[in-house]
Amino acid sequence: MLARPIQKLIEVFTRLPGVGPKTAERFAIHLLKSGRGEVTRLEKALEELLQNIRSCELCHNFSDMTPCEICSDTKRDHALVCVVAEPQDVIAIEKTESFGGVYHVLRGLIDPLRDTGIEQMKIPELLARVRTDGVREIIFALDPTIEGETTVQYISAQLRGSGASLSKLATGIPSGGSIEYADEITLGSALKARQKIENATGS
Amino acid sequence: MLARPIQKLIEVFTRLPGVGPKTAERFAIHLLKSGRGEVTRLEKALEELLQNIRSCELCHNFSDMTPCEICSDTKRDHALVCVVAEPQDVIAIEKTESFGGVYHVLRGLIDPLRDTGIEQMKIPELLARVRTDGVREIIFALDPTIEGETTVQYISAQLRGSGASLSKLATGIPSGGSIEYADEITLGSALKARQKIENATGS
Questions:
Q1: With an 8 Å Cβ cutoff, are A62 and B3 in contact?
Q2: Do B32 and A49 make contact, defined as CB atoms within 8 angstroms?
Q3: What is the DSSP string of B113-137?
Q4: Which of A32, A196, B46, B149 has its CA 20 to 30 A from that of B122?
Q5: Is the pLDDT confidence value at B29 over 80?
């Protein structure tokens, strides 16, 4: 009973992550009620995206210029590379304002159970950067999951003998979290990676 | 640190109902990763919407033709009008497959506390339909809220003497719901509107 153009838009909206038919219907009805201006606004934003967004040839993040803003920033330490899985991880780390190096976006993680996707990942590009760009230190900022750990292992093995120092993010109790409800693997790794507390009274 | 066209798209997405900055970011990154085809698909659906969707001049539902598919259906009872607040209510009622009349979409409800929006509502159009189109029966299918009840009261007063029979949807315990957790107003109205059970043994 819905006109075909509305049905079609709902169908396209359901392709967005986490959007079911009910939510897609709300989006479509919202646009219909907001009218021409709102629909045009979304159209224009999509068109600009198509026209202007490319992949940075160095870090493989999405950007409107290549090299991207971060890779062209001479104030950043280009010998310190943070390896992440996806563009949204760059956003998350930038928000901490505690990293002054550059990034390498792998565009995925190795899934040891499925054996797919690794060809699309930017691993050869990372190895090339380390070989030719004088990378001193690599920090893996990948999810502490089977996929993340496998990816760290795989790339680390390829980088053996490269001279770059490798590290990965600390795992442990999340800030504000509770020990009572932490899972045993998290708690175990938090214990192993316990941090020394500076004692004001000395010794 | 996000390229401006991505930021812009995220901003437009947050204007959709229930979409916060994090969800909008996921939508944008999803489109970026899916690539040109997916973005174009959404663009085209929006364009088709702009080109083809208008408001039905009879019921004020969105449609690609006017009168809309429902209003042009000669098999439906045009003297029986179901009054709803929004286009999505038409979809919900059509899904029940238990209504054979036509609709009138008010495009809103009267908010007695705010006193706004009533000018945009299609109330004069409903009164005109009743006066000129020989409407026999009106069913108000509005939310059982202050706004819904106020709207029913307001329109009913205007229709006094029109000869049309007026009713509203039954309120009561939702099918599959629990008496223990029903609020007192719902339970009270379910008691008052109790339905006679046909007794197989007669009397």
A1: yes
A2: yes
A3: TT--SGGGSSHHHHHHHHHHTT--E
A4: B46
A5: yes
Residues carrying CATH 1.10.8.420, chain B: 4-52
Query: How buried is residue B138: exposed, middle or buried, by Cβ count under 10 Å (0-12/13-18/19+)?
Result: buried
Give the pLDDT score at A203: 46
CATH 3.40.1360.10 residue ranges of chain A are 62-168
Per the CB < 8 A criterion, the answer to whether B87 and B108 are in contact is no
Question: Domain spanning A62-168 has what CATH number?
Answer: 3.40.1360.10
Q: Which residues have C-beta within 8 Å of that of residue B74, sequence separation ≥ 6?
A: none
Q: Which residues of B touch A48 (CB under 8 A)?
A: 5, 8-9
Which residue matches tokens 């797919």?
A116
Return the residue in A43, A54, A98 with the most chain B beta carbons within 10 A, the one to mutate for interface testing: A43
Report CB contact under 8 Å: B12, A69. Answer: no
Determine the pLDDT at residue B200: 53
Q: Which residues of A touch B69 (CB under 8 A)?
A: 1, 3
**Is it true that domain A4-52 has CATH number 1.10.8.420?**
yes
Q: Does residue A111 carry a pLDDT above 80?
A: yes
Phi first, then psi, for residue B36 (nearest 5°) are -55, -45
Q: How does pLDDT run across B117-133, given as a tens digit for each residue?
A: 788 899 999 999 998 88
B73 CB-contact burial (10 Å; exposed 0-12 / middle 13-18 / buried 19+)? middle
The reply to whether residue A17 touches residue B26, judged by beta carbons under 8 angstroms, is yes
* A17 alpha-carbon distance from chain centroid: 16
Give the length of chain B. Answer: 203
Q: Do B9 and A65 touch (CB under 8 A)?
A: no
Within 10 A of A164 (CB to CB), how many other CB atoms are there?
Answer: 17
Average pLDDT over residues B182-200: 75
DSSP-based three-state secondary structure for B53: coil
Helix axes B21-34, A87-96, angle to 10 degrees: 140
Cis-peptide into A124, omega within 30 deg: no
User: Which of B11, B23, B53 is the closest to A32 by Cβ?
Assistant: B53
* Structure-block tokens of residue B164: 């049309």
Query: Which of A49, A75, A120 to probe the B interface (max B CBs under 10 A)?
Result: A49
pLDDT tens-digit readout, A126-184:
999 998 888 999 999 998 888 999 999 999 999 988 889 999 888 887 878 787 887 88
